[in-house]
Amino acid sequence: xxxxxxxxxxxxxxxxxxxxxxxxxxxxxxxxxxxxxxxxxxxxxxxxxxxxxxxxxxxxxxxxxxxxxxxxxxxxxxxxxxxxxxxxxxxxxxxxxxxxxxxxxxxxxxxxxxxxxxxxxxxxxxxxxxxxxxxxxxxxxxxxxxxxxxxxxxxxxxxxxxxxxxxxxxxxxxxxxxxxxxxxxxxxxxxxxxxxxxx
Length: 199
What we know:
The relative contact order is 0.12. The longest helix is centred in the first third of the chain and has 27 residues, at about 50-75. Helix 1 (about 10-25) crosses helix 4 (about 50-75), helix 4 (about 50-75) packs parallel to helix 7 and helix 5 (about 80-95) packs parallel to helix 8. This protein has a domain at about 60-195: Orthogonal Bundle (Tetracycline Repressor, domain 2), CATH 1.10.357. It is elongated and about 60 Å long. The protein has about 200 residues and is mainly α. About 70% of the residues lie in helices and about 0% in strands.
């Protein structure tokens, strides 16, 4: 007879995402996972594997629930620079207020931690960066068509710049950066590539 799971693996993984996201993988032990989920080690190992496999699954879940939907909204928006401004506004909001304040971004945290040495994690981080940059590039291409960019602006290079700015917002918010300062920094970056730049 097959073993019947008496818990919801999806709900368990959501709990684990929050644990790794808030504490980081290095500071989180299996006992922390056991305590947070209420499961015993054998159930965790049988379902997810060891800590490394569990972290990989949590990181994939984070990307699926948080990153891809935000990138898709930016890609499909079509308004150009206002869509980019809205993306950053929402980013600062979620990083600085509410339940997830000062947690940073699980992806940015992984870039800064030892976990990026795992080839599977590194591949996901690279894909995440490409998707973020591509979403920015699509929005900037729309901005260019609408005449919203300053003459001579390179949309591809600017997309890379904005992707890096997103990582900066994520990291600074983790240490308690003032949201007003983050909003001003984003505004300056967008103004520097906007049609009014140098006018």
